[in-house]
Design brief:
Order of helices and strands: EHEHEHEHHHEHEHHEEE
Distance between the termini: 71 Å
Shape: globular
Bound molecules: pantoate
Oligomer: single chain
Structural class: alpha/beta
CATH topology of the largest domain: Rossmann fold
Number of domains: 2
Strand order of the largest sheet: 1-4-3-2-5-6
Helix content: 25-40%
Number of strands: 9
Length: 291
């Protein structure tokens, strides 16, 4: 396994691999690797000749006062986890390698970036789209893998790839959860053990929403039930709970039979902001015979 720190070296290596006819699978990460990342790597490794991951805590996707400085950076641990997953190359650039002096180009995926997390994290998706575009230009993957845990990020990236005619294929991978349901995230490491218990309310609220939606409850009833579950926790503060169209991320007003929606939420547990979501389909109406 190689660790490459220079953009120009990574590009040369990627060009050579492509010339040799090798398919490149890519998993971009900010490090602090966990089971969610590892499952993306397993899939990417199976589906491609070469697996490249990037580890880069991207400053431009953090807003002022967010956790850029305290974001975990356990590189040696990440390196050994990557090795166990048979990663061929870790691209591990410095901030100055990625953003030269006077850096001034950004990608804005309109509409999708302004909803859900975009409201409380202005500029976040501009930072994500721009760095992912740069990483694609550097690593030159055939296929890139993203988790549905960051569902909005996934939609933004897919839209960017479509709108800018990028040749990379995007694979969506299911959320990986702890056995008790908590969605795995690098930020879970900030939680104390009582907070970790409270964080389970996100999953509980989503599961409850799923059963209500399947049976045909209204959007407002589902949201108030979810709020009730989360507000029981002493340190929980809701940023948003929304039921949206999975494609446009626009709020849905009614959920007709057979319709699929995304239930998404962001909740502060103490000083940690957690996100989670679930795709839910309402049952198709049963046919009744009037006698
Ligand atoms: O999901 C992440 O870890 C980051 O947002 C990404 C895609 C690596 C871009 O920095």
């Amino acid at each position: 396994m190689k660790v490459i720190r220079k953009v120009s070296v990574m590009q040369k290596v990627a060009d050579k691999l492509r010339e040799e006819g090798k398919s490149i699978g890519f998993v971009p990460t900010m490090g602090a690797l966990h089971q969610g990342h590892l499952s993306l790597m397993e899939r990417a490794r199976k589906e491609n000749d070469i697996l490249i991951i990037s580890i880069f805590v991207n400053p431009t996707q953090f807003g002022p006062g967010e956790d850029y400085r305290r974001y975990p950076r356990p590189f040696e641990k990440d390196r050994s986890l990557a090795k166990k997953k048979s990663v061929h190359i870790i691209f591990y650039p410095s901030v100055s390698e990625m953003y030269g002096k006077e850096y001034s180009t950004h990608i804005e995926v309109e509409k999708l970036s302004k909803r859900l997390c975009g409201l409380s994290r202005p500029g976040h998706f501009r930072g994500v789209a721009s760095v992912v575009c740069k990483l694609f230009n550097i690593v030159k993957p055939h296929v890139a893998y993203f988790g549905q845990k960051d569902y909005q990020q996934l939609r933004v990236i897919k839209k960017m790839v479509e709108d800018l005619n990028m040749e990379v294929k995007i694979r969506e991978c299911a959320i990986v959860r702890e056995p008790d349901g908590l969605a795995i995230s690098s930020r879970n490491s900030y939680l104390s053990s009582p907070e970790r218990e409270e964080a389970l309310s996100l999953y509980r609220a989503l599961e409850h929403a799923k059963s209500l939606i399947k049976e045909g409850s209204s959007v407002s009833d589902v949201i108030s039930e979810m709020e009730r579950i989360i507000k029981r926790e002493a340190h929980a503060k809701i940023d948003y709970i929304e039921i949206v169209d999975p494609f446009t991320l626009e709020e849905v007003k009614t959920i007709g039979p057979g319709k699929k929606v995304l239930v998404a939420l962001a909740v502060w547990i103490g000083n940690t902001r957690l996100i989670d979501n679930m795709l839910v389909k309402r049952k198709r109406g049963q046919s009744h015979f009037l006698l």
